[in-house]
Amino acid sequence: MVETDEKTETTVDERPIRVLVAKPGLDGHDRGAKVVARALRDAGMEVIYTGIRQTPEMIAEAALQEDVDVIGLSIHSGAHMALFPRIMEALRARGVDDVIVFAGGIIPQDDVPAIKAMGIAEVFGPGASLDEIVRKVREAAAERRRQPE
Amino acid sequence: MATRQRHDGVTRQEGEPLTPQPSLPQGERGSGGLGGAQGARGNDGALAARFAAWKEQARRQLGGEVERATYSGFPVAGVHTPLDVADQDYLRDLGLPGEYPFTRGVHATGYRGKPWTMRIFAGFGTAEETNARFKYLLAHGESGLSVAFDLPTLYGYDTDHPLAMGEFGKCGVAVSSLADMELLFDGIPVDQITTSMTINGPAAVIWAMYIAAAEKRGIAMEQLGGTIQNDILKEFIAQKEWIFPPRPHLRLVVDTIEFGTRHLPRWNTISVSGYHIREAGSTALQELAFTLADGKAYVEAALERGLQIDDFAPRISFFFNADNNFFEEVAKYRAARRIWARELRERYGAQNPRSLWLRFHTQTAGVTCTAQQPENNVVRIAMQALAAVMGGTQSLHTNSLDEALALPSEKAVQIALRTQQIILHETGVPDTVDPLGGSYYVEWLTDQMERGCDEYFARIEQYGGVIPAIEAGFFQREIAEAAFRYQQAVEAKRQIIVGVNEYVTEETLGVPLLRVDEASEVRQIDRLRRVRRERSPAEVARCLRELERAARGRDNLMLPILDAVRAYATLGEICDVLRGVFGEYQEMPVL
Question: Which top CATH class is B1-591?
């Protein structure tokens, strides 16, 4: 299921894309995270789902231990502007600075530019399709693997 | 991440499994009664022949199956006839409103006697800000209060706890001590108005604060009316706002039931909730079955404590969702009343008619509100509210059109309240009780709901009850599966969501959003620190020690909790003592 990329000269990494689906914040709204996790898994990726109520440190630690390509953050509590910078900082502190981070949940459009400025690649709002999420995760992971080590 | 919208009415695809498959034999309940359904029994043979011919013709015209499955898996027949309710016995299965089994309503005169309570769920920021919103709602004709607490409060943390960072006031109001509770209800006549509080993990503590705040104003607890949600089982099943493991949590629930039975005769000590189960992705049938199973588990826990069924059962209330599949929702409420009455009388031997009443609050389905073209949500909410009223709800919250975007603005809340007022005063719907009673379709769906519940009850029983089924991940898997199936239907456009996967327009958002003022958090933390500074440390320490002693034993914890809140011990301090004794629950996530 891993996409090969014919445009590059380098050998395409054949390992399945590894994704950490994580729920920061205190809210228990895990429906979206679970549906997305399952869709990514059905698309051939290896998905690690953290469960709910994860602190920034727990998420960064899991990303490091699991050696993931992509992190998907799902949050519905409204605490994203407080927690996302701490997650990015916790990742950097562990040297995990080349992982692609996506976010989703109930996140007002007005906050999106600031979130992208933190280094988060994309914010999926309510109504985002699974196809779109799978495609963007795949593209981002392929792009990351093309980067020289 | 994924779309949060969903509703019922998915067309079944060939080969797609339906869960569950209602298969119990029909008409085996009850003790028999008078007459056949709708007086049509004598013509059943002729009708069956004509229906078969109709169906054949319909199949040709449609070029395929005539049946279309609801999201719960009920095969809707294209047209429903007396054949579908041939096993129904009017007096046995329906009766008049106010009569067993209460299918048509618990009150004889329905909304003519008492309109439903218009109760808008509200809470954000500090106690002062939410108090102002309460007064705004009351001034606009709201008839009962409903408090939303913020996430730290729901988890039993004070606002200045490290895990509370960024969460203050976002999903509701922060209440960390009695001082906050006093401000929250300042100037509100709590002896005259009923208050519903959506609080579960720390329900006993928050309820104690409400009681203590009233007490300080000279209002005795016997005079207080309202509801605490206090439904911890559905937290483990769906909403995930637990603190302790299931068994000590259940003990706390029974403590509140016991205390309320003795001291607060007008208080509903539990609101057994399907709302969150549905929002997490369940079908209507699963919502109903899991909720009633939870209700039975609470009854059994209270009986085990030695309480008498007719002493506590009248104060058990329920809370359901109102989603988009109109008739399935109405059938769900009707079936809920009938099943509960039968279970309480036949299984638990309740005698008091009030014990048999399933009284419920309804909230329109938050997940059906779309972020796209949010004005359309007004229409969805109105239809969902109408289903709740047709189903005989005792109390109703209508969502605001900006639900999928942020906390509701004042204007959006006003439209939500006006929606209920229009239904009450302009539609004529409240003029007669259970206006859809006797509809072949709705009666058939009601029967289907009941059979489907029986099947789920048997499956839960096989696990050894609700808690073992939670620990085995049964409910969580069922819900995740239904949510995924629904999302697939949306992706494949078997389920159309207007403005999301069809009739899409590019538009900029025209809805003003409410933001929580960051200065509020500073004020809240200042107050919390002042409370800690000004109270008697010796008294707080004594109360917390006494609470710990009681928690390690078997005493009812309400009295030590009340003493602790009166001494201004904070929510976090009280819950920390209980965490120390009971431990904290860790879920094994189920995908």
Answer: alpha beta
